[in-house]
Specification:
The chain is built from 1 helix and 12 strands. It has 133 residues and is mainly beta. The protein has a single domain (2-132), classed as Jelly Rolls. The chain has a 5-stranded antiparallel β-sheet, with no helix packed on it. The structure holds thymidine-5'-diphosphate. The site of thymidine-5'-diphosphate has 6 residues, from strand 4 and strand 5. Thymidine-5'-diphosphate (TYD) binds at residues 31, 33, 35, 44-45, 112.
Length: 133
Amino acid sequence: MELVDLRVIGDERGSLIALEQGQNIPFAIKRAYYIFGTQSDVNRGFHAHRRLEQMAICVSGRCKMIIDDGVTKQAIWLDSSSKALIIRNMIWREMHEFSEDCVLMVFASEHYDESDYIRNYDQFIKEVRNGQA
Ligand code: TYD
């Protein structure tokens, strides 16, 4: 699990976090998006990417991330605006238990491309094993 503890620049007026490509974001950013207004009983994700790398931060609220490399499955609460999760390629991810105020910000290394998605878990496992062969 690759977590980055982002430096909070704070003073009496409040807090600020700066994200910079090549500094605390370990890839060139082609896209950013954010997920918000997610219903509490909804789960998202359930896919992996063949090439895409991402960095996810809950800038408000929290959600639980499940990260699975095909061998090990780990759960992590994204519950701080200074905690970033790096999700490399060929990692199955699920998002659960969104708080009502959750805003999940994601930075991505590629433009949106549906053909980069693996949305079937058995197919994901097959491609992980092929990659290792
Ligand atoms: P998806 O990645 O499946 O969402 P999640 O992983 O959060 O469950 O995307 C949901 C929909 O939004 C899907 O139809 C594709 C579309 N989409 C874009 O058009 N552009 C994007 O950058 C993203 C992330 C999704």
